[in-house]
Design goal:
Number of helices: 3
Mean pLDDT: 82
Strand content: 25-35%
Radius of gyration: 25 Å
CATH topology: Protein Transport Mog1p, Chain A
Helix content: 25-40%
Oligomer: single chain
Largest sheet: 7 strands, antiparallel
CATH class: Alpha Beta
Structural class: alpha+beta
Order of helices and strands: HEEEEEEEHEEEEHE
Length: 199
């Protein structure tokens, strides 16, 4: 038997054997994430027009710039979750001549609507917490930068907007478990939120 014939026979044998073997594709997997226990602390800094509870595994930093510009007041903050590369951006505006209430509401819906090219759904729901703080919660479905957004207001003086972002490529499947975990914290923040009288 020549070398060419032997090679052909060997390749054919491997091919027929491979066709008869069973192959099971492995599903895509993600790293196991160890979640900390839920425990909260109070954010009640002097001079701030609001207070709320946030997780002990998060840290709050003052946000002093907005797209390179100075924020319009000193009460903008970020709630960072270093373990999950997540952040809740909190912006605050005083309702008045410069910030018309109807315009603030429209802007909140417009900002959420910017996800329509990637989202397969945008659900909004009215909310009222135990301290009679009212607002709207947005749940955006799909591979979007922020799937959870909200705003809180008293309709006359205060308007606060929050959005949970991740420092990662938007992928609904891979972020889902972390999103669900942090959503409990977002809901706790909203339910514990109160407006404070300023001096």
């Amino acid at each position: 038997m020549s070398k060419i014939a032997a090679s052909f026979f060997f390749i054919a044998l491997v091919f027929f054997y491979a066709c008869n073997s069973s192959f099971t594709p492995k599903p895509t997997g993600y790293f196991k994430i160890d979640f900390p226990s839920k425990k909260y602390q109070l954010f009640q800094e002097p001079g701030y027009p609001y207070s709320f509870e946030y997780p002990v595994y998060a840290r709050i930093t003052k946000d002093s710039t907005f797209f390179g510009e100075t924020t319009e007041n000193p009460w903008w903050i970020n709630i960072d979750f270093p373990q999950f590369s997540g952040r809740i951006y909190i912006s605050y505006k005083q309702i008045g001549a410069q910030n018309n209430f109807d315009t603030l509401i429209r802007d909140a819906f417009t900002l959420t609507g910017k996800h329509t090219s990637k989202a397969y759904s945008i659900d909004d729901s009215l909310l009222v917490n135990p301290y009679n703080v009212e607002g709207v919660f947005f749940k955006v479905g799909g591979d979007v930068a922020t799937a959870n957004q909200f705003f809180l207001t008293d309709s006359s003086r205060h308007f606060l907007r929050g959005a949970l972002y991740f420092d990662a490529t938007p992928n609904e499947d891979s972020l889902n478990i972390v999103n669900q975990f942090l959503m409990e914290d977002v809901k706790h923040l909203i339910n514990s939120f109160t407006w404070r009288k300023q001096p």
